[in-house]
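ugh ok so i messed up the first submission bc i forgot one of the chains. this is the corrected input, ALL of the components this time, i swear. 1774 residues overall. if the numbers dont match what u have on ur side tell me asap before i send this to the collaborators (the ones from the other lab, u know who)
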Amino acid sequence: MIKGTVLINSETCKGCELCIVACPQDSLSLSQKINLRGYRYVELSQDNCTGCTNCAIVCPDAVITVYRQSKQNYKKAV
Amino acid sequence: MIKGTVLINSETCKGCELCIVACPQDSLSLSQKINLRGYRYVELSQDNCTGCTNCAIVCPDAVITVYRQSKQNYKKAV
Amino acid sequence: MPEEMLIDEMQCVYQKPGTLTDEYMHYCPGCGHAVAHKILMEVVEEMGLQEDIIGVAPVGCSVFAYNYMNIDMQEAAHGRASAVATGIKRVRPDKFVFSYQGDGDLAAIGTAETIHTINRGENILIVFINNGIYGMTGGQMAPTSLFGQKTSTSPYGRDVAHNGYPLKITELIAHLPGAYYVTRQAVHTPNTVRKFKKALNNAFEYQKLNKGTCFIEVVSNCPSGWKMTPKETLTYIEEKMLPEYPLGDIKVPTQNKN
Amino acid sequence: MPEEMLIDEMQCVYQKPGTLTDEYMHYCPGCGHAVAHKILMEVVEEMGLQEDIIGVAPVGCSVFAYNYMNIDMQEAAHGRASAVATGIKRVRPDKFVFSYQGDGDLAAIGTAETIHTINRGENILIVFINNGIYGMTGGQMAPTSLFGQKTSTSPYGRDVAHNGYPLKITELIAHLPGAYYVTRQAVHTPNTVRKFKKALNNAFEYQKLNKGTCFIEVVSNCPSGWKMTPKETLTYIEEKMLPEYPLGDIKVPTQNKN
Amino acid sequence: METNKSEIRLMKGNEALAEAAIRAGLDAYFGYPITPQSEVLEYLTLEIPKRRGIVLQAESEVASINMIYGAAGAGARVMTSSSSPGMSLMQEGISYIAAAELPCLLVNVVRGGPGLGTIQPSQGDYFQATKGGGHGDYRLIVLAPSSVQEMCDFVFDGFKLAEKYRNPTLILSDGALGQMMEKVEFPGDGSLPHQIPAWATTGKKGRERNFITSLHMEPERMEEINLHLQRKYKEIEENEVRYETFEIDDAEIVLVAFGLPARICQKTVELARAKGIKAGLVRPITLFPFPKKIISDLSKKIDRFLVVELNAGQMVEDVMLAANGNCPVHFKGRMGGMLIQPEEVLEEIEKIVEESLTLNAGQE
Amino acid sequence: METNKSEIRLMKGNEALAEAAIRAGLDAYFGYPITPQSEVLEYLTLEIPKRRGIVLQAESEVASINMIYGAAGAGARVMTSSSSPGMSLMQEGISYIAAAELPCLLVNVVRGGPGLGTIQPSQGDYFQATKGGGHGDYRLIVLAPSSVQEMCDFVFDGFKLAEKYRNPTLILSDGALGQMMEKVEFPGDGSLPHQIPAWATTGKKGRERNFITSLHMEPERMEEINLHLQRKYKEIEENEVRYETFEIDDAEIVLVAFGLPARICQKTVELARAKGIKAGLVRPITLFPFPKKIISDLSKKIDRFLVVELNAGQMVEDVMLAANGNCPVHFKGRMGGMLIQPEEVLEEIEKIVEESLTLNAGQE
Amino acid sequence: MYTTDEIIIAGFGGQGVLSMGKILAYSAMIENKETSWMPSYGPEMRGGTANCITIISENKISSPIVSKFDSAIILNQPSMNKFEDHVKEHGFLFYEASTIINPPTREDIMVYKIAAIEEANKIGQKQISNMIMLGAFLEIKPLVKRETVLLALKKVLPERHHHLIAVNEQALLRGKELVEINYHVSV
Amino acid sequence: MYTTDEIIIAGFGGQGVLSMGKILAYSAMIENKETSWMPSYGPEMRGGTANCITIISENKISSPIVSKFDSAIILNQPSMNKFEDHVKEHGFLFYEASTIINPPTREDIMVYKIAAIEEANKIGQKQISNMIMLGAFLEIKPLVKRETVLLALKKVLPERHHHLIAVNEQALLRGKELVEINYHVSV
Ligand SMILES: Cc1ncc(C[n+]2csc(CCOP(=O)(O)OP(=O)(O)O)c2C)c(N)n1
Ligand SMILES: Cc1ncc(C[n+]2csc(CCOP(=O)(O)OP(=O)(O)O)c2C)c(N)n1
Ligand code: SF4
Ligand code: SF4
Ligand code: SF4
Ligand code: SF4
Ligand code: SF4
Ligand code: SF4
Ligand SMILES: [Mg+2]
Ligand SMILES: [Mg+2]
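and heres the new structure output, hopefully the right one now
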């Protein structure tokens, strides 16, 4: 399985959970903490991310940056 | 052939000639005279009218009243 | 007069309907508006609607319709006749209500009101006089003007690339579920007039049954705007208008749609 | 942070496009507008249009689009975005122009402008966000609200007899010859987003080729207006919206239509 | 819900207006959502199905006002409401309605303009309301409420005046009045009976045909129509002026303000008097007809006026016209959705008084 | 057609305006037919394809004004024209354009209102033009031509002013000026160069993004916008006032009239002087900014003003505001499309003079 | 001779009413006079009468619309009914003999009955009846020179119609003759 | 005790900000006081903060919108940043302990830190944190009686929620206790 990870901007996350629904790996979950705007934000809660970008694609607020281990030379998966 | 005739209100006729085109009997023609509004108006110029109402139906200005010899008890042909 | 002698023995088989006033009509010689007025009022008379109907006149050559039609009427702002008719029908649902509109009025400035009135299925009749031109203002291009048609604002002919396509608003609104009966008629020959009359009859019958919006397009002429004699307009209608705007029913109620 | 260590060895495969500004978006959590903005700007970035494109924002929740899209933009009056886009495109024909509009904006107050812009075949893209509600003003009924849908102005549910039918404006305008490419997309799943992106790509390619109006409806959600959590809106879209507004191309260019 | 007796409630201005309309026998409402007045439509869609009348969300303000034209022409008691940009779209329709002399009630819950502006309260549409934003010479009867209670009361007054003069009446409110809650006491249902007028288009049963129009091609005829309208407006000016005064008897400086700012200025008058400044207040309630006479009378005995508005200076022109140079007229305004505070007005008073003292000192 | 040199022609006002617009470098015209101004669109559709620019018949006036907004925002030199009912429909769009500070030229060939009214000439839209028929505090620069020549000249002036101040300019004409033919001398092409302004939306090549908006949710920010606009209007009032005077040096009664009636009043002045009445004339050319100072100055030395308008009395308010009670201001108007004749104005003068004599006699 | 002449020309739409006024105005412009031409406009023209007011003056023209006229050229009965009373005292009224059944009755103006249509038919060019009328008018009221009118025609007519200028000249002259031999003065 | 009290209540949309103000206003009405309630409105509420101004007075209320407040009840950090400076000198500020990281720094006002959310969680009814806050507020500023608040609740809540009134009463009392034992006065 390809190894990936995501970087989450906890201050722009609005806790809508759409990324959580979209993640095929169940890697994401809502934190108990709230950010300055009052939202519980998303965290990577499991180490099984494949870097599939699904979460990032559906994230309305462009909160998520996705990285993938593969060396292929493309910038975006979509 | 059924015998008919038409009554033409020469003052409201605008001389558009649409009745002339519509008459299957060629019974109508434009007069040389002009009415008060400056239009040459239509006259019954032949005695072969059948009272088919075609002229009256297409007359925009409701200038023509049509009569027919038949004794059938209907008021309008359309 | 020789006619008068004859007449005594004859029956009157066609006369100006009593639902038209005695006012002299301001329309140009041979104008289809006048025919449409007359036929509409004939149907109103024959169906006995005169005391139970409210009409809406547009801004366009037929703006004075209320001078000629001997019924209660309102004159609407340009393009808004169907909104005005909606206002009337909503508060007087037991009355017959129709709007009478030109192509500039209904298909240009009034497009939104037309579409939404029909989409709501307002239980009214819309009579749409399509003469492919702005008659009243002196012959400018209408949304329904034909390809290449020369008008005072398309002096080199209507150019699709610049002015867009002749708008078949009737076909368009037929897709709306609120439209119950949609038909295209004409008034330039005795036969087309008879069919138009039948269509009007249908429309009022449907209105009585509360069926939704009925829409009758009338392909009409505008001798002045087209810069033709009335006779010439007959050919133009047959040869130019009808191929683009073919006559006939576009949407008819089906049995199961009651 | 463990991620950062990993990241050094990894490649970035998805990030916020540079064509979005750094502004925090005012949209409610989970709002489809934000997804649509992001994807639109991704396409603008990938196609290299950023310096040659002018967008038009509507009045509606996306009224602030110009704060988020890092391109030249104009904010239009409610319903008039396509007229504004027409004005821009006519004087800047060598630029890419799009309008971005909600269902109230495009399909209610702006109906006439929508229809006539497309009928003229203006060489622009119209992005139409159909969330079946007036988001910005607090959840009133839109022309596209569903049968029975409860909104703040249809508290007992949309009643066809009173409020009319959900208006399928996209199917309607597809009948206009000026419409070159008409498609209905969504943004609630990774897959629909990918297809939406492809559609945007097509539309800008066609615009480059001067093909006429391209129209992309986006079936979108409004968690606030629908009074649901964002997650719940996903089900509502699938179960209620899509049956009424099925996804897919409605009009595609055919070979012979070049 | 008991609606046949009067009751006190705590309510938003917009909702109070809507409730009042139902109690005033509203036959039909046509409108389009816009902040900050959408509660009117929302309230009516909730209540009317349970009670009586028609409420229809139109596709636009243009459609709304023309539906109003149709329904009013057919003799119904009708109302529409909107906020600034929406009112601008109605101007053609309003001109038609005024010209065709159809009674109806219009409501503008004004927000900060121009353009899309902001949704906060403003009085920037005074000119549009009182001088006719549409084309041609016409006037609306304009009522300016300053409390939620008046948002209710003026609905009744508005219908009454509209029907008495066959003239559209406009309630010129603002976003704050629309959104705020206050106590309001409603009259019971049925206090304002309504009959379908004889001129209405209801089908020509048993009479000559009625028609509603504003078209008169012959300029001679159109001038007659205008003369008739002008006579009517004159009559309205003679009979229907309404205003309130506060502490004007010995006032040296008189504030003039309408709507919410009038309440704020009343507080200012109290603060000023506490400081020994002889301030007073005139609050025009009808903006057309404008209370010229009281202003004119005062102008001959006071030192100065200070007009306070939430705009760049609009009613101030009417005050100046009435004062006709008899005394100085000052202006203090806030714009773009900003409200004004009593203290701010007081400061302005103090500044003016001081300036005039310096001026007088300089002249000596 | 030679267009690069000036030439004299006999032309309708509407056509002269259209020809002038082409010569002034019009990039785009968007408009909708309406009598009595349709010749503008007609002329442009005939000429522009042979020359330069864009002309598009829109589906409505609402669409036209919003196309203007778009094209002006994209930096083009643009114009639209209409007549009264059509202008009313544009009020929302005009408020947006004024708020977003987009330069453009608007033309109202006024007809008799209110409502559908008549197509004959009128000045019933003065209030709408000068006080803002749309919502919020904004001003148009308003030019009032009184000859076919000025229908041409003011197009150039209009574009110049609009672009100088980033403000819409309105030419307030009337049906008679639009329809009548007179001699007109045109400047050659190219006399009014135009560059795409830096703020325009043309694609953000090599710079930060530009955006055009009138939305400012924060009332503090919206107030700043308004203060900025008000400062601009003030500047316009200081710099751009234009008017003409005739025989005012020793005048005892001064007529004030704009547009066509100003020509008619000039004749009246001649007739009056022939009868020994010391009459004079002030003709405001800019209606906003209004020539307050000359009126104010005169008000201190003359006996009275007589304002003559083709309406129920609109500019008369601005005259009264400027005269500020220094002398009486009388009014004579015709409405509904009726023009006024020099003799009729003379009669009014004689009546006023007589009345004042009686009054004075009575007072002695 | 005349400092200002205010002329009404009225008749049916098709009678060349507007162009007659235009040609007068054009001629005045060529002769460096002040001039204005104001048509009746809008839908009232439809089927009804058309008219225009042409003013020719040595001085700046104040109002292009007046209600009393120095001269009237009337081509049909409805216009006669409407405008007869609007001719100034001692003014001039020219009217078309063949279309006007009820001649004017005023005795304080100069009245000229011109059979222009008849004459035009004789010449065989129906459309020039208005030039015949104009010829008659200019003979009595020489506001502009006949040569100027022909110059004006050259400017107004499209190139392809320039061959008609000769027959127009003929018409002007015929008008002049008609008025010389065949008029009725009622003052 | 107080002739007029101008109160701002501010927090996130979901924190019951508007209803807290409404209940206060309703209670004042029941006690025959003058009152007004003015919400922030429009799309700025979206995702951002909501607030309302409630005024309770013995006299007619002039302005429903003021910019300086006698009392502030602040439920989140952004509102604290925005409104701290708007409390009048010697005014009162109540704030939610669990959401506000940076406590107020002013020394010329009375500040009350209330752990309402925590307490509500303890009681097991998340939604009543605002009633706890209100209980605390009313203990310090007895503008209306606690019994009146319960009456108001009865009027405001739909019948089906009337069973919640008991727990609301509990919450009010808990607020009263909290403020008695656990506050910090900085003046
Ligand atoms: C708001 C407004 N815009 C424009 C006009 C001018 N106008 C009057 S009628 C008309 C169009 C008429 O065309 P159509 O609707 O096709 O009617 P027709 O005369 O051809 O029957 C226009 C543009 C107007 N009166 N009001
Ligand atoms: C002329 C005018 N009318 C009404 C409004 C109020 N208004 C603002 S946005 C909107 C509708 C928004 O709905 P939609 O277009 O569906 O956009 P959404 O917010 O759902 O994205 C309305 C009615 C306005 N600003 N201007
Ligand atoms: S990139 Fe894919 S696997 Fe990783 S968190 Fe996002 S959705 Fe889950
Ligand atoms: S989709 Fe984006 S905003 Fe929503 S929870 Fe996930 S990261 Fe946060
Ligand atoms: S159709 Fe009517 S108007 Fe036309 S010529 Fe015949 S009778 Fe006359
Ligand atoms: S009734 Fe028939 S036959 Fe007789 S004139 Fe008319 S069309 Fe001809
Ligand atoms: S202009 Fe055309 S539509 Fe109008 S009356 Fe004349 S012929 Fe009929
Ligand atoms: S109200 Fe609806 S459309 Fe608007 S931002 Fe919120 S969720 Fe999105
Ligand atoms: Mg037409
Ligand atoms: Mg929406």
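quick check: The domain at 4-68 of chain A is CATH 3.30.70.20 (Alpha-Beta Plaits). that seems consistent at least. Residues 72-78 of chain A have pLDDT under 50 and may be disordered.
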